[in-house]
């Protein structure tokens, strides 16, 4: 019994080490959120068991929980680098698969067709607006900057306001609002499914996305020319790493001790 109890401890410590290593590896990843491992004990008994003599048989991983606290904001100066100063996620749609993704990494760029997208060609979603920036539909669409305006002037610049308005500037000096960035929130963000590249997908645990405008209600305003860094605290992770290593060593020592006891019993019988 003691072998399997300690073996469960070894496996749990290994999982904990993997989660901590993943956090440390992504300390420089924009929009990354730290994860932590939660454990639960395993106790087995029957209706006829004496509760005073119930013995545990180890532990198991109960959950790997993400921490969505705000990371430090770094100024970059790039017009399409956008950080959310508060709650919310950017909504993007994959140009290849059409899947909707959510992210805190606001590092965007523009392609030859005027679509604003991230490094994986996931297109930023915006609410359609009129020329004054008033939202005309609550159904998000892919942000696309026209390469010329109605007068035929060429596109020269793009800016993002705190309220989410995406402004396109043209050679004749005119400025047009092409949409307002749509933000998403979730009832249980810790239930979001990680898919890599600082992206998440909704799941049955997170609930569906609730869309809204930056700076309205629970949604934070936007900071153009800035990016949100990883929220991993490297000092905290190093302390956790040492603790996980000690847990691994302690369980390994318990297995070694059980082996020695078993060998002693065998020697007595022989």
From TrEMBL:
Q: What does this protein do?
A: A flexible structure which links the flagellar filament to the drive apparatus in the basal body.
Entry-linked InterPro entries: Flag_bb_rod_N, Flagellar_FlgE/F/G, Flg_bb/hook_C_dom, FlgE/F/G-like, LlgE_F_G-like_D1
Species of origin reads Aurantiacibacter flavus
| This protein's record includes keyword RNA-binding | no
Query: NCBIfam families from the xrefs?
Result: FlgEFG_subfam (TIGR03506)
Q: Where does the record place the Flagellar hook protein FlgE/F/G-like D1 domain?
A: 83-168
- Flagellar basal body rod protein N-terminal domain spans which residues? 3-33
The answer on whether this UniProt entry bears the keyword Transcription regulation reads: no
Task: Give all residue intervals belonging to the Flagellar basal-body/hook protein C-terminal domain.
Answer: 224-268
Q: What is this protein called?
A: Flagellar hook protein FlgE
Q: What is its main location?
A: other
Q: Where in the cell is it found?
A: Bacterial flagellum basal body
Keywords (A to Z) from UniProt = Bacterial flagellum, Cell projection, Cilium, Flagellum
Highest taxon in the source lineage = Bacteria
